[in-house]
Each structure stands twice: as structure tokens, then as C-alpha cells.
Amino acid sequence: MGSHSDGTPHQSGTVATTGTTEMERFPDPGLPPHRPRLTDIDEKAAKRAERQVVLLFLISVLGSVLFFVGYFGIQIDGAPKYDVTDPSGSRALQVQNLLLGLGIALGMFGIGIGVVHWARTLMPDHELVESRHAVRTEEQRADAQEILTTIYDESGIKRRPLLRNTLIGAAVVAPLPFIGLLKDLGPTDLDVLKHTLWDEGVRLVRDPSGTPIKASDVTLGSTFHVVPENLAQIGHNEGYLDEKAKAVVLLMRLDPDSVNVSPERQDWNVDGIFAYSKVCTHVGCPVALYEQQTHHLLCPCHQSTFDLTNECEVIFGPAARPLPQLPITVDAEGYLVARSDFTEPVGPTYSQRGTHVEEMQGEAN
């Protein structure tokens, strides 16, 4: 047994240990031998790859055009231009959404895959190793410019003008759908958000059935999605969707003892039944998630959270102001009706910028 009798790992020989000499460094294996691609040795294959890239860029352009066909060519408010049998416009909306989605997908897919395919099949793929160094002297700047010129030449843009032109066309057209979508982030005339269809005596009805709601129908903890009864009088070609988007309301009943109500709003609720705008004050997404236990309303877009027990003040998220409250009461038949329109504009906070300026100017005068 000898010196191994203590049984320790370092003495028993069960563990291999390194020597005290410094380990030799592995030699640099260098770069592997370059394997030419088919397009490097076969001109026909290169031409075929070039046509494939051009086709992908053209698909991108076609997708962008398809987006604009759906965006501008299909009428949503009213019967679509191609089908007079659909007065509600529901089929038109489905077709438009399909064209918008396909258009954006093809636009991004074509230009993305086209550039990748170009790089993998036609651009030089030689591996090289260069030492990094700071570009400081004029001579080094000239070297850097020469490198960029070499990259430009090796990309094949000069030798393949069809690739260059289709790439430029796809790159110019592809962002246009996103620019067009900016138009739908909000109305260009912000004054339209200051007034809705709600008015004194207008009944609250369920969406989408249009059934009037009695105060006795609203039980503790229940929630209703509500629109004004006079919305049914507006045709789909007369701005129905726009008016509905502004007027939608969430109706809930809470224990009156658990709610803090400011003095000027004491008569805005009916025995704990409260009505608040469904349009988030951040960017206008529909607030539709109600946590019954915490009495919180949540916006699913950016997680803005509003506290129902404190007049829907913001307790989390990017929203800058509470949800506007709709003053309500009951009529002679026991149905819930509005006392008036909203006392402040609904929707995103930016819609009130002009209002704040006017108020400040009025106070200054």
C-alpha cells in the first residue's frame, strides 16, 4: 500500500493531476479551406440565384401594394364597394384585415429573405481575420474607405443593376404601410373626442344586443359592456363605428361603502353602479379586464391599471389620467340613463392638449 494507505484522493492515485510545468499552448489551426459554392463556379446557378432574389424583392413590393389596396380600396363604414349585399360591412372588415396582414407579412418577408438569400448565394463568403485597431490617421481612414469600397464592389451591386433597383424599390415601398397605419392611431381632428352620443336621458343598453339595463339587473360585482341606445339610429355609412368607439362604457356595481366619491360626483352613480369610459387614456385601447376582488380595471395593451374605488385613478402603467366617468341615474321605468355627456374628452390624453392650452389662456385673461 505504501504512501497510498491514507486513502485521500491526491494520495491514492484515483485522481489524475497535472504536472508543475506550464501547459503548452495549442497551435493556431488557422482558417479551414474555403469551399466554393455552386454559384461561385456555375454562372447559370448565379443567374438563377439572382432571379430568385429579384423575385423576393418584387414579392415585397407586391405585399406593400396589397396593403394599400386593402387600406384604401375597401370601404368599412357602409357596404363595401364590391358587395352591396353586406350593408353592415362585416365581410369588408374581414377582407380588409386579411389584406392588411398579408400585405405587411409579404412586404417584410420578401425584403428580409431576399437580402439573406443574396448574401448567402452571391456575395463573397471568404473568411478572413483582421486585427482591430483605432482609425486615427489619414492613412488609416483611407484604408477604411478602401475596405468599404471593396465591400461595395464585392456585393455585386455594380454588376447586377436589377438586384440593386429592385432592392431600392422594396426598401422604399416597405415602410409605407407602417406610415399609413400611423393615421389610425387617433383622429386628426381632436375636437371629435370632446363629445359623444351620450346625453341627458339616453338609456344605457347592452353591447351588442341593445337591451336596456335596469338598475335591478346590475348585481354586486357584475360588469356590463354598454353603448348609448341612440347609437342604433346611426347607419354604418354614417360613422357608426367611430361613434361607438367613443361612447363605449363599462358598467359595474360596487359596495358603496368601499368607494371614495368626491362631493361633486355624489349623484353620478346609482346605489354603487358606476359607468366609466372603456377607452384607455394612454393611446385609446379598450379597457376590458376587471379584477373583481381588487376592483381594478386593466388595459391589455400597455397594462395601465385604474382603481374603481377611487374614481378610476391610475395606479400603474403609462396612462396619465383617470378614465372619464359617465354621470348616470334612473328614469321613471327604472332603466339606467345618462345624466349628460362625459364632462371631459374621452380617449388618449394628447387629445386634451389643446383644451389645456385654451383653459390656461382663459385663466390668464
From TrEMBL:
<dbReference type="Pfam" id="PF19297">
    <property type="entry name" value="QcrA_N"/>
</dbReference>
<dbReference type="InterPro" id="IPR017941">
    <property type="entry name" value="Rieske_2Fe-2S"/>
</dbReference>
<keyword id="KW-0001">2Fe-2S</keyword>
<keyword id="KW-0812">Transmembrane</keyword>
<feature type="region of interest" description="Disordered">
    <location>
        <begin position="1"/>
        <end position="38"/>
    </location>
</feature>
<keyword id="KW-0679">Respiratory chain</keyword>
<feature type="transmembrane region" description="Helical">
    <location>
        <begin position="162"/>
        <end position="182"/>
    </location>
</feature>
<comment type="similarity">
    <text>Belongs to the Rieske iron-sulfur protein family.</text>
</comment>
<keyword id="KW-0408">Iron</keyword>
<comment type="function">
    <text>Iron-sulfur subunit of the cytochrome bc1 complex, an essential component of the respiratory electron transport chain required for ATP synthesis. The bc1 complex catalyzes the oxidation of menaquinol and the reduction of cytochrome c in the respiratory chain. The bc1 complex operates through a Q-cycle mechanism that couples electron transfer to generation of the proton gradient that drives ATP synthesis.</text>
</comment>
<dbReference type="InterPro" id="IPR045603">
    <property type="entry name" value="QcrA_N"/>
</dbReference>
<keyword id="KW-0249">Electron transport</keyword>
<dbReference type="InterPro" id="IPR014349">
    <property type="entry name" value="Rieske_Fe-S_prot"/>
</dbReference>
<feature type="compositionally biased region" description="Polar residues">
    <location>
        <begin position="1"/>
        <end position="21"/>
    </location>
</feature>
<keyword id="KW-1015">Disulfide bond</keyword>
<protein>
    <recommendedName>
        <fullName>Cytochrome bc1 complex Rieske iron-sulfur subunit</fullName>
    </recommendedName>
</protein>
<keyword id="KW-0479">Metal-binding</keyword>
<keyword id="KW-1133">Transmembrane helix</keyword>
<keyword id="KW-0560">Oxidoreductase</keyword>
<feature type="transmembrane region" description="Helical">
    <location>
        <begin position="94"/>
        <end position="116"/>
    </location>
</feature>
<keyword id="KW-0472">Membrane</keyword>
<dbReference type="InterPro" id="IPR036922">
    <property type="entry name" value="Rieske_2Fe-2S_sf"/>
</dbReference>
<feature type="transmembrane region" description="Helical">
    <location>
        <begin position="53"/>
        <end position="74"/>
    </location>
</feature>
<dbReference type="Pfam" id="PF00355">
    <property type="entry name" value="Rieske"/>
</dbReference>
<feature type="domain" description="Rieske">
    <location>
        <begin position="246"/>
        <end position="337"/>
    </location>
</feature>
<keyword id="KW-1003">Cell membrane</keyword>
<keyword id="KW-0411">Iron-sulfur</keyword>
<keyword id="KW-0813">Transport</keyword>
